[in-house]
Amino acid sequence: MKPAVVIGAGLTGLSAAHTLAGAGYAVTVYEREYVVGGHARSETFCDVPYEPHGAHIFHTTDREVWELVSALVEMLPYRHRVVTDLRGEFFSWPLQLDELHRLDEWGRIQDELAALPGDRDATNFETWCVSQMGVTLYELFIEGYTGKQWGLPGSKLSAALGPKRVELRRDGNRDLFRDPYQGWPARGYGALAEALAGDCEVVLGRPVTVHDLPYVAPRGAPVIVTAALDDFFDQRHGPLDWRGVSTAAHWLPEVVFSQPTMVVNRPSPDVPYTRTIETKHALGDSSTPGTMVMHEFPGAPAKHYPVLDADGANRLAHQRYEYDLATYDRNPLAAAGRLAHYTYINMDQAMREGFNVAERCSGQQ
Q1: Which of 17, 72, 85, 91 satisfies CB 3.0 to 4.6 Å to 195 for a cystine?
Q2: Would you kindly state where each structural domain of the chain is located, as residue ranges?
Q3: Whole-model pTM above 0.90?
Q4: pLDDT tens, 172-205?
Q5: Region 2-40+188-241+307-363: CATH code
Q6: pLDDT of 133-144, one tens digit each?
């Protein structure tokens, strides 16, 4: 069997490994942690799921990806809803126009909405949001959350963050995602990761950089890198700018549900965390007491979100690492996934990237 190496055992890397193994490769996956699944991995406490790295919801328009996931693990029917806690009242997120009349500022909001320009102002994230919903709604629901989440004002962030995160709805659809295929794995994302690993050799607790390739990959064997490229290249061009989160888990033994939805956004600058997460909602209607609520705090030294600054400096810094990857000549190297591409993508997109890059690599042999 022909050898292949995958660096990183998140959903992207394991999807690539699954595809390569199906094409007849002897695949070895290297993972720096001692578990597979990456940031998506969930855990349980007294049979109640919780997510140490924040909420992860599987949703997709990609039928092929959905059918594979559904064949590997049982998927519970779950459609994700989010609310924002503003001064003790809950409002749907994305914002629904028909709920906003409850706000004391409703008259001013109406005037601002009537005066909106026809086009979005893509100067930065703040101008993009304001041109969609006006200053008042931005200040109430987004400004404080953004400052906490990114450690930067919206004026310093790229407008590219807007379309995936911000919407003012008028249609009454309170699901966060509109995708036709949505669900949550009955046994958590760790079960999905382990199913993808299949017949591959998996080495845990083993970080791999470019300097390790002569020892882990035969010359000429394809290597798929899903790790952050600044880590893979030992930060030879300096570290990239990332924003991480940390979570604190709160077990409530006598409580069935602590909050109305799985995720509650907390935009107030007086609250140190950005949101609370109660993954138990994904299990459906459960009357069993006991729930776990995660408080998510921004600013941790972890690589969860690339920082897309308004002037694009971080993206340019990443391109230097992409050049190093493309010009490495001992093995054909390919990047895939959120970390390696320095971009935010959903889980279905991460898996699709793994499938696609593996197919390209196997076609080159």
Answers
A1: 72
A2: 2-40+188-241+307-363, 43-81+175-187+242-304, 96-169
A3: yes
A4: 999 999 999 999 999 999 999 999 998 899 999 9
A5: 3.40.50.720
A6: 999 999 999 999
